[in-house]
């Protein structure tokens, strides 16, 4: 027993040490929290009004956002923005659910686009239309597509902030290697299939390089659906009323599943799971020649790949006019029922974020779109685009998007759950489930969630 | 019946200090050999080395004439009874008894036969279906014994097998073990710290202290002629009274304290070379002084009347002595009694080495033995 | 107390006597209650209240804020019975238990037996073998996330040295559950090892020595002494490992998020997803109750059939 006792003591040491290191990292995380005294909505502290801002920009994005916040805080003496990282969009939403409507809620909350409907229904937030009307703020300066997404029932509920769209990223060297034109990205399904077939290289029973891949993530499915003009749900994608029925398992959705299924069966599609890093690593290490990524991942792909990288529009079925893409990303929400001066501060900061100079910095440093087209005229952006001409493609794709309910994006409150259903459907598809069956399963799951949401909506 | 020989055996755990040193002894077939000594003297280690449970650091072990140092325990033809009996708590008495036979794949019929035989011998038949925890201490002891006997090993090793029993049971088991050993003709090597067990059971006794042999001999030899002060004090109950004294060569006297002098006969003077000696006297050799000229006046500090004898304790020079008188004596604590010390019954030891310089004369004992014979 | 008040009408003295006797009669109980109070309070707040709340919620549909909005009776349970996804969850959970529990225990037992030898430097091995106990689920999962990485993971690189096709550990639904199981077994080993080693060290060395003298082989000793003597420890650790396996969450969340194709959507993860991603606290609570009964049944079965083989000293 003595020996065991000895081992236990050592183990404790290890434990305590690891706990210590964890502690320090936690401290770093909470440091920003402490400075705001109990994460309040904001406080009037001496001269400056504190405005708490919850966001989900981790890593490099957080650095950029913090520097912008600092810039703002130094640019004026009235308000102090306290930016707090709250984990992923989902995690931040979970936290919000427990404090929403109380004094602990933030003044500004960043939420991803598919949370829009939920945020509206929650009733915790003041539509920014109120402020727009108050001072006749010019929203038309923003990118049209972005306006289309965030304008619900002719009203702005939240301020668009970081936006991205999907693109096709491909390995130019591989294209040349197999005799494809490296400057012409495949656009239609048959072009994609053909290119993927050529690009796939098999060695014995090991596939060295797959032709095409797509992250197992609902967002890409939604985009491929929208570009065909296909609706996700009824009621004009949930924009004319609460959606009740799912439409994504119709012919448009089936085309997407058939495409993926065909390539998967032919062995030209590589499945790299649902982790962004994994699929990006696969592309950069040459294991896949074409894949779909977010526009915000373009610069990273160019910089980290040991080969030339090309960027194209997302694929669409043959003989069909592509409709464009749905804007992805997140917007900023302003809390209801808080001190007016804090609201003013929040609004003031939101406006500051829309200025072309700030948008230029944001676009260049993060790869997100500049939501104000004027930003593209800034020298900073021009320089960047001449350095990385591929970035221009993402902007072109967004600006060539046709405005209609499909590309406005669906509004349903149970989007996170629905995305999960689509992910499962894709995974089942790759495992050999019939495309229609897989889609129908996801549709049933989504419909049940919508039904429950509708049933419980006004019963508080 | 096998002979066990230990030649120059030593044991060391750390290559520096020996816990056992230079053990030489030859244990005869059928002999009841007792290893006795205070706790920590290395007697259990020695036994475990014979059994093969501990490595032998140096020296050679022969069992039945064969070099056995490297033999596995099961190849040595031994059985072993542990101090805590090492019964398998989850097995019944019968299963415990035949455990070893089963391991050696003895056929079932034979197993049962031998089990019943042994259980019968030890009176365990009614308990065969019980688990060890449902048995009394004595019964458990018997199961351990049965397990050892059933193996039919010619050599039986026992490590303080009686120390967990109460006094009455212990004395009963002493004779039972002795009888079984004789009946089966086992070579028994028996470890104990209890000198009574050693004296009553052993054909021969080895007294160990601090890893060294103090003396080997039969019980009376060791009692009457202790090789040194340690053996003298270790064997016998109550123990031999010892006291430092000085030997005055000119006066030919032994001086205890200042005023007690004992005259040494001329023929012994030569044997005693040191001035500093230890004088020892067994409790039964101290008598009430009747008309003797030389006597001590002692003050009684404790009296134990045991029925047939009385043990009286007193203090000499800060040391507590005891004396054992036959019969029942009514003595009160604090009584002053004159006692006499006869030179004949004194043992004298070298104060430095402890070696015996003179043993007490034990003529009277021999006489009684002769009468009995 | 009402009785005492009534007694007062009968006269001052008897009332006092009664009062005293009532107080003194209940003195022991009241003292006992006082000592129990902290645990009663803690249990009520952290165990009983959530338990009743779970049962309550399982009869409701919740709105987007997770508030119970509509009483639906047993609809949530009916839904679960029909839900294919939940069937998959149960199947995955049972398979997971089957994969992890026996292998964890056999592995840990093997390590404990070899670490029970009295050799020089054995302390180092004991520390090593038990070291996974000191690691959080998150940390170990992240380590395995790297090992399992499809293109740059260490395991696949090792396989490629031997010219074996890379395995898509976490992406292939037929491997994902096995990968999670490997991670779990690895994480279980430390604690299980330590408990079993403690159990082994409590076995009287003399039993083995006695068996050696009797000529018993290693396997014979293992079968007849080690396993029976270790049975209380084994029983304890099997129960704990079983319950833990049913409640596995962290490694699933970090490694696979329940996918691919819901192949690792263990019940607890499914509950989490239902409650904290979909905000269906009702369905989640219903699942939690189903899980509770699962564990209850398994534990009862284990006590009923397993405990017979356990020998308590």
TrEMBL record, chain B:
The keyword Transmembrane helix does not apply. Gene3D superfamilies: 2.40.50.100, Nucleic acid-binding proteins, P-loop containing nucleotide triphosphate hydrolases. PROSITE patterns: ABC_TRANSPORTER_1, ABC_TRANSPORTER_2. One of its GO terms (molecular function) is ABC-type transporter activity. InterPro entries: AAA+_ATPase, ABC_transporter-like_ATP-bd, ABC_transporter-like_CS, ABC_transpr_MalK/UgpC-like, Mo/tungstate-bd_C_term_dom, NA-bd_OB-fold, OB_MalK-like, P-loop_NTPase. It holds the Pfam family ABC_tran. GO terms for cellular component: ATP-binding cassette (ABC) transporter complex, substrate-binding subunit-containing. The keyword Repressor does not apply. Transmembrane segments: none annotated. NCBIfam families: PRK11650.1. This is ABC transporter ATP-binding protein. It comes from Chengkuizengella marina.
UniProtKB/TrEMBL annotation, chain C:
One of its GO terms (biological process) is transmembrane transport. Keywords: Cell membrane, Membrane, Transmembrane, Transmembrane helix, Transport. It comes from the Bacteria. It is a multi-pass membrane protein. Coiled coil: none annotated. PROSITE patterns: ABC_TM1. GO terms for cellular component: plasma membrane. It is found in: Cell membrane. It holds the Pfam family BPD_transp_1. Residues 90-302 form the ABC transmembrane type-1 domain. The chain crosses the membrane at residues 32-52, 94-115, 127-147, 175-197, 227-246, 284-303. The keyword Membrane applies. InterPro entries: ABC_transporter_permease, MetI-like, MetI-like_sf. Belongs to the binding-protein-dependent transport system permease family. This is Sugar ABC transporter permease.
């Amino acid at each position: 027993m003595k020996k065991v006792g000895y081992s236990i003591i050592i183990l404790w040491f290890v434990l305590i040490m690891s706990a210590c290191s964890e502690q320090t990292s936690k401290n770093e995380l909470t440091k920003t929290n402490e400075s705001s005294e109990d994460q309040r909505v904001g406080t009037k502290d001496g001269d400056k009004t504190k405005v708490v801002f919850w966001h989900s920009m981790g890593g490099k994005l957080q650095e950029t956002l913090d520097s912008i916040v600092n810039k703002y805080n130094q640019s004026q003496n009235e308000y102090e923005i306290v930016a707090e990282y709250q984990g992923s969009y989902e995690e931040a939403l979970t936290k919000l659910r427990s404090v929403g409507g109380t004094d602990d809620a933030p003044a500004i909350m960043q939420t991803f686009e598919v949370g829009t409907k939920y945020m509206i229904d929650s009733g915790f937030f003041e539509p920014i239309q109120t402020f727009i009307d108050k001072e006749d703020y010019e929203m038309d300066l923003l990118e049209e597509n972005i306006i289309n997404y965030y304008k619900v029932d002719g009203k702005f509920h939240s301020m668009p902030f970081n936006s991205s769209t999907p693109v096709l990223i491909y390995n130019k060297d591989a294209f040349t290697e197999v005799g494809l034109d490296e400057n012409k990205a495949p656009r239609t399904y048959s072009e994609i299939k053909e290119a993927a077939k050529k690009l796939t290289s098999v060695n014995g029973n090991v596939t060295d390089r797959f032709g095409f891949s797509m992250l197992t993530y609902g967002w890409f499915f939604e985009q491929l659906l929208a570009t065909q003009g296909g609706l996700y749900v009824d009621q004009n994608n949930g924009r004319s009323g609460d959606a009740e029925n799912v439409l994504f398992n119709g012919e448009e959705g089936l085309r997407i599943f058939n495409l993926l299924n065909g390539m998967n069966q032919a062995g030209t599609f590589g499945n790299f799971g649902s982790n962004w890093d994994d699929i990006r690593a696969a592309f950069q290490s040459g294991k896949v020649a074409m894949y779909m990524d977010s526009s915000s991942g373009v610069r990273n792909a160019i910089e980290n790949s040991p080969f030339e990288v090309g960027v194209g529009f997302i694929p669409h079925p043959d003989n069909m006019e592509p409709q464009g893409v749905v804007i992805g990303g997140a917007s900023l929400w302003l809390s209801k029922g808080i001190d007016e001066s804090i609201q003013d501060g929040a609004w003031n900061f939101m406006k500051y974020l829309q200025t072309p100079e700030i948008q230029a910095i944001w676009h260049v440093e993060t790869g997100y779109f500049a939501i104000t087209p004027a930003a593209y005229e800034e020298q900073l952006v021009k320089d960047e685009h001449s350095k990385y001409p591929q970035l221009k493609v993402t902007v072109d794709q967004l600006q060539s998007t046709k405005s209609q309910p499909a590309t406005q994006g669906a509004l349903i409150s149970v989007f996170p759950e629905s995305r999960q259903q689509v992910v499962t459907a894709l995974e089942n598809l790759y495992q050999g489930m019939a495309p229609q069956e897989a889609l129908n399963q996801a549709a049933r799951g989504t419909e049940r969630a919508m039904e429950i949401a509708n049933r419980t909506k006004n019963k508080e | 019946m096998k002979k066990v020989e230990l030649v120059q055996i030593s044991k060391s755990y750390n290559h520096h200090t020996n816990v056992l040193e230079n053990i030489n002894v030859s244990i005869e077939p059928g002999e009841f050999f007792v290893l006795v000594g205070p706790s920590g003297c290395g007697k259990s280690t020695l036994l475990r080395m014979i059994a093969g449970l501990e490595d032998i650091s140096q020296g050679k072990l022969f069992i039945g004439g064969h070099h056995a140092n490297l033999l596995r325990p099961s190849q040595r033809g031994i059985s072993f009874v542990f101090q805590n009996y090492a019964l398998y708590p989850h097995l019944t008495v019968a299963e415990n008894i035949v455990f070893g036979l089963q391991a050696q794949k003895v056929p079932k019929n034979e197993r049962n036969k031998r089990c019943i035989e042994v259980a019968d011998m030890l009176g365990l038949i009614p308990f065969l279906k019980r688990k060890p925890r449902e048995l009394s201490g004595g019964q458990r002891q018997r199961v351990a014994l049965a397990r050892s006997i059933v193996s039919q090993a010619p050599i039986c090793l026992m490590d303080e097998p009686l120390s967990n029993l109460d006094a009455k049971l212990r004395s009963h088991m002493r004779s039972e073990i002795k009888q079984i050993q004789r009946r089966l003709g086992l070579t028994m090597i028996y470890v104990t710290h209890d000198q009574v067990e050693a004296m009553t059971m052993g054909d021969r006794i080895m007294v160990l202290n601090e890893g060294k042999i103090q003396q080997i001999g039969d019980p009376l030899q060791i009692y009457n002629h202790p090789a040194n002060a340690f053996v003298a004090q270790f064997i016998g109950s109550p123990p031999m009274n010892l006291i430092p004294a000085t030997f005055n060569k000119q006066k030919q006297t032994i001086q205890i304290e200042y005023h007690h002098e004992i005259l040494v006969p001329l023929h012994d003077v030569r044997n005693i070379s040191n001035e500093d000696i230890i004088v020892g006297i067994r409790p039964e050799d101290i008598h009430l002084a009747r008309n003797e000229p030389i006597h001590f006046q002692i003050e009684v500090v404790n009296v134990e009347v045991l029925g047939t004898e009385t043990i009286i304790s007193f203090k000499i020079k800060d040391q507590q002595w005891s004396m054992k008188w036959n019969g029942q004596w009514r003595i009160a604590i604090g009584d002053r009694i004159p006692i006499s010390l006869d030179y004949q019954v004194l043992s004298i030891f070298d104060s430095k080495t402890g070696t015996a310089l003179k043993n007490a004369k034990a003529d009277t004992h021999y006489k009684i033995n002769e009468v009995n014979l | 107390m009402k009785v005492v008040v009534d007694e007062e009408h009968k006269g001052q003295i008897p009332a006092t006597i009664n009062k005293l006797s009532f107080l003194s009669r209940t003195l022991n109980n009241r003292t006992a209650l006082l000592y129990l109070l902290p645990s009663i309070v803690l249990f009520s707040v952290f165990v009983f209240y959530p338990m009743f709340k779970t049962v309550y919620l399982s009869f409701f549909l919740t709105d987007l804020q997770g508030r119970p909005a509509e009483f639906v009776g047993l609809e949530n349970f009916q839904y679960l019975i029909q839900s294919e996804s939940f069937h998959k969850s149960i199947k995955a959970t049972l398979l997971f238990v089957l994969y992890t529990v026996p292998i964890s225990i056999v592995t840990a037992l093997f390590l404990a037996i070899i670490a029970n030898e009295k050799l020089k430097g054995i302390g180092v091995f004991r520390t090593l073998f038990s070291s996974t106990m000191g690691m959080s689920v998150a940390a170990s999962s992240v380590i395995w996330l790297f090992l399992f990485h499809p293109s740059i993971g260490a395991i696949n690189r090792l396989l490629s040295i031997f010219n074996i096709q890379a395995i898509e550990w976490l992406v292939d639904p037929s491997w994902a559950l096995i990968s999670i199981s490997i991670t779990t077994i690895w994480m279980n080993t430390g604690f299980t090892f330590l408990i079993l080693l403690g159990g082994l060290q409590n076995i009287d060395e003399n039993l083995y020595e006695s068996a050696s003298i009797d000529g018993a082989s290693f396997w014979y000793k293992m079968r007849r002494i080690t396993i029976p003597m270790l049975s209380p420890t084994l029983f304890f650790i099997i129960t704990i490992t079983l319950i833990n396996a049913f409640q596995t969450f962290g490694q699933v969340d970090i490694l696979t998020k329940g996918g691919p194709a819901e192949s690792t959507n263990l019940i607890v993860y499914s509950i989490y997803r239902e409650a904290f991603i979909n905000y269906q606290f009702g369905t989640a609570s219903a699942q939690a109750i189903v899980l509770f009964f699962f564990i209850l049944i398994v534990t009862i079965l284990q006590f009923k059939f397993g405990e017979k083989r356990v020998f308590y000293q």
